[in-house]
Amino acid sequence: MAWQGHLNWATFHFRDIAQNRAGRRSMFGNIGAVYKGSADDAALNAAVQRYAANPQAVKSFGDDTDPSGRIPVPVLTVHALHDPVAFVEMEHTFRQTMRNGGSGDRLVQTCTEDSEDSYLSDPLYPALMQQLLAWVQHGRKPTQQSVADACTAAQTTYGPGCRMVVGFEPLPLDARVTLRQRP
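RE: above sequence
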């Protein structure tokens, strides 16, 4: 029941955000959200309670937590394609943040064919570190293919587990999260 642990964590985490970081104002809203996938979507959407996000809470939370995208060092990410907790579409938002902050050229994003949100595989992490160090020390910017190749090579030392997805391009977060009105 991994989902129960995630649900517990999210419940208490969001309560902390609302009570302690937002001054008991909600930065979450669902005005305009159209939920899909039930046996009767029209009845579901007619019955769901609607809440507007408080604009001051959204701004305050963003000021406290949103990255600027101005990252002066190389960034190499890896994300599980089927991560049920931190959706892979979040990578699109991070890429846009780095581009908007002028650091887009210092970002390489990779993805694996996994469904976890924590440990992925033994050969993956040494391969990522090798690629990142080569970028930092020698200016050899990795590619998705070079990371996949390094992971495959690392399997001889660390055992099987390379499930890299070459050609990965993250979709916008709104491809996964129901659109809604935002302040």
